[in-house]
């Protein structure tokens, strides 16, 4: 008698992460067949020649011989203290070393924060579009992600009325991704203050994903939502992966601030989970103090003459020159989320659209529904390649869309 088939956990039934999903699997198969794929699907900075600051690398090398042992479950004192100082710079009040948790990237800490909080049926408000790790982590923790709309007509700012409509007695918290992935939006203080007011009114925890808080263009300034109140509980996430081009170091942190008294039992759960994983990787921890205290080279990259700013401007110009393509120009982060006019591009299945683009033009993007956006008329583009490579990639997208219009009889040229 054959052995029974073993299936994956039912907890994964509602979990997806399309940034590294089926379309990427197809791209890998094509690469194995000898095709060269232009990958605009993931913000992995190193593969585009955006390296971490040399002083971070050298300090990690110098300290590596002392990095073999476990650390405190929340992390080493010195990097946690440097995060406290960073909170002071960001005007987040009342943060001590004990309120800082270091993790294997912010991703681990996001999952930990949901695991420590949620019971089956508990709800967390998440933006649409979102960074899909949030939705996946909520589902995997037994909770229910409830998506509120971010309004493209209002620079992708959260729709505050939609947030209010979707709060129920089961709602435990609200996620804010600011600066936003995938739209590149940066939320103004007046919007953040209204979100704080909603959280205060309904007794919610605010979860603030701020991993791109230094990747800012055109002189824009980021405000940490946790700096705007001390009577609401805040959990803030950040790390080295984007601001310091150190994705593979897996060095992130989580900060508890605001009304800590009301969530003391939840904090006990966070401490328990932090202890269970023993500690974050020590070499990554050793990079944090040097990064936060050193020269902020990201400022050069996002300046008007800097590489990231030039690439953003080029991608925006080339995309919006394509008939039927519109885009809110990003104020921050590494992505844009262009819209395809449904009358010109009648797309029923945007994952299939991404497959076809990959097959015809060897360009890999992520479809908009992969970010839990409700309609199949957007995609996310990463503008990390050098300008010549970026122009080639967007040129291929333009050619694919021109052929799409001809096939569907919507070419108005």
Notable features of this structure?
about 425 residues, alpha/beta, 15 strands
Question: How would you describe this structure to a colleague?
Answer:
The structure is a single chain. The protein has 413 residues and is of the alpha/beta class. Helices cover 37% and strands 15% of the residues. The protein contains 13 helices and 15 strands. It has helices at residues 22-32, 54-63, 77-89, 105-115, 132-140, 160-165, 189-202, 264-276, 282-293, 298-302, 307-320, 350-361, 387-408; strands spanning 38-39, 100-104, 123-128, 144-151, 157-158, 171-177, 205-209, 234-239, 251-257, 325-326, 335-336, 339-340, 363-364, 366-367, 379-382. An eight-stranded mixed sheet has the order 2-9-8-7-6-3-4-5. Helix 7 links the parallel strand 6 and strand 7 (205-209). The model has no long low-confidence stretch (mean pLDDT 93).
Could you write a compact summary of the structure shown?
The protein has 413 residues and is α/β, with parallel strands linked by helices. Helix content is 37%, strand content 15%.
Instruction: Kindly estimate the percentage of residues that lie in beta strands according to DSSP.
Output: 15-25%
Structure class: alpha/beta
The Rg value, from CA coordinates, equals 22 Å
Uncertain regions spanning at least 5 consecutive residues? none
Order of helices and strands: HEHHEHEHEEHEHEEEHHHHEEEHEEEH
Q: How helix-rich are the residues, as a percent range?
A: 25-40%
Alpha-carbon distance between the two ends: 65 Å
Mean pLDDT: 93
The largest sheet is: 8 strands, mixed
Strands ordered across the widest β-sheet = 2-9-8-7-6-3-4-5
DSSP summary: helix tally: 13
Instruction: Count every beta strand, where a strand is a DSSP E run of 2 or more residues.
Output: 15
Shape: globular
